[in-house]
Amino acid sequence: MAQTTSLSGITAIIIGVGYGGLSASIELALKGADVQVFESYPDMTKQGDVIQVPANATRLMSRWGDVLSQTVKESALPTVLAIQNKDGKLLLDQQLHTEFGGFPNIYSHRGRIQKRMYDEAVKHGVRVNFGAAVTEVFEEGDSAGVIVGGVKNTADVVLASDGVHSRTRGYVTGAVERPKKSGFAVYRSWFPLSQLQNDPVTKPIYESKKDLFQIWIGENTHAILTTNRALQTATCFVTHKDLSDVVEDWNLPGDVQDMLACVEGWDPVLRHIIQSIPPECLIDYKLLWRDPVPKWVSNGGRVCLLGDAAHPHLATSGTGAAQAIEDAATIAVVLEKLGKQNVPIALKSYEKLRYERTSLTQRMGWETRHVWHQTDWNAVASNPDFLKLPQPAWLLGVDAVDYAEENIEAVKSHLLDGAPFQSKNVPPGHVHEDWNIEMMLSHEGKKVDEDFYKTRE
Ligand SMILES: Cc1cc2nc3c(=O)[nH]c(=O)nc-3n(C[C@H](O)[C@H](O)[C@H](O)COP(=O)(O)OP(=O)(O)OC[C@H]3O[C@@H](n4cnc5c(N)ncnc54)[C@H](O)[C@@H]3O)c2cc1C
């Protein structure tokens, strides 16, 4: 095992205050690094709605002061996922794992968690600059940096958590590519649960003593309802085909009538829920994607991608935020283990420890959606479990810190001496295969053989 060193001599610049940037800030600052963050938004009022934070992420968050304990108090902890067809006929009551290793699978509010993470980062000395768009990234000698407002800022390392639209990604990979349309969009709403109180059709949802998680599936479309008793809120999403040219924006208003049109003739309960959504609580969110890319570290070795900048996930994976948090924890470990004088090899180790896992979790989002949108009703008739939301132990039961600590020497030998290295944070026996969006889109609208799926349990 490598000698443990502190990060007290290391300076880091982080781009973005999403979950990737904030978790990296906390992880590095907790180990003593000097961390400065640049965020283009003027503040954190662009908050989003519900976000799923599974056990592999809450395990890491549990080390951040009271961030997790406070978050749990305002989270939904559903025990069952009710999967129904479009008429509302129950196909499967999936009993959900509510925890792994004592760490909860929670559904909470993105903005509230983000604010707690921000406060924790600041408490540990992280300096966050809002309204500070990074216009250029550079490397020179033993340092890397960013240009903000024409001013050069340098550090030992630049961590680019600049989201799905990442500009740093082009700097790192050398390829000029933009996020691609996934062909789908989601009407997303987050509204007071009391909206469901006065309609007799939706009243039972309002009165339920449990956090509800329900899904309706139909061809090329699915709808999701979640309720959060602690916050007295509900969310209703409809994912549907979309061929428009508008790009992803978390603030694009949606239209309730358009949302209803996507589920014409579906279960009246779902339609009544949608009719209860206050117009100002609905957004129309276009789902964007990027191909998995194996290169996350710049040629100079001091700039790396993390979170959605490296691997944007579809919402149906339920693990985009968690993978960003795992990235952050891994970076902190590799920098600590290999030290300031070995930043390039440390970041390459991070990439090796993470790429095959996230390539698979990105694919999981497409696979789950495909199972729900192109349902093989014969397979479902003989085994309704086919429809399950995957909650595999290889994903939710892993401690990214332990994994990085246990594998850093083997990865280093792999990178420096060509020793074989086999990822173990993937399903047992999994053999990595590269894939891209075009390949997946070619299967859109068609059933695929069961062995095409790599992430079904
Ligand atoms: C406003 C918003 C709302 C969201 N709401 C939800 C939600 O409700 N549910 C959900 O599941 N997921 C949501 N997401 C996505 C989710 O947060 C991410 O998929 C996941 O957590 C990974 O986070 P990330 O830090 O990699 O990326 P992001 O959360 O996208 O954060 C990237 C950050 O980088 C900043 N940035 C980008 N370019 C620059 C630049 N050049 N200079 C400085 N800063 C830059 C962006 O402003 C942004 O704050 C939302 C994302 C955003 C930006």
Secondary structure layout plus pairing:
Layout lengths: L10 E5 L3 H12 L3 E5 L11 E4 L1 H7 L5 H7 L6 E6 L4 E6 L3 E2 L2 E2 L1 E4 H14 L3 E3 L4 E7 L2 E6 L2 E5 L1 E4 L7 H6 L6 E13 L10 H5 L5 E6 L2 E8 L4 E9 L14 H7 L5 H8 L6 E8 L13 E3 L14 H19 L4 H31 L3 H6 L10 H4 L3 H18 L19 H5 L16
Parallel strand pairs: 1-2, 1-13, 2-9, 4-15, 13-19
Antiparallel strand pairs: 3-8, 4-5, 6-7, 10-11, 11-12, 14-17, 14-18, 15-16, 16-17
The structure holds flavin-adenine dinucleotide.
The site of flavin-adenine dinucleotide (FAD) has 31 residues, from helix 1, strand 3 and helix 9.
Could you explain the architecture of this structure?
The protein has 2 domains: 11-76 and 107-178 and 291-441, FAD/NAD(P)-binding domain; 180-289, D-Amino Acid Oxidase, Chain A, domain 2 (2-Layer Sandwich), CATH 3.30.9.30. It has 457 residues and is α/β, with parallel strands linked by helices. The chain contains 14 helices and 19 strands. The mean pLDDT is 93. It is globular and about 65 Å long. The strands form 5 sheets. Strands 5-4-15-16-17-14-18 form a 7-stranded mixed beta sheet, sandwiched between helices. Strands 9-2-1-13-19 form a 5-stranded parallel beta sheet. The chain has a 3-stranded antiparallel beta sheet with strand order 10-11-12, with no helix packed on it. This is FAD-binding domain-containing protein. Belongs to the paxM FAD-dependent monooxygenase family. Residues 12-357 form the FAD-binding domain.
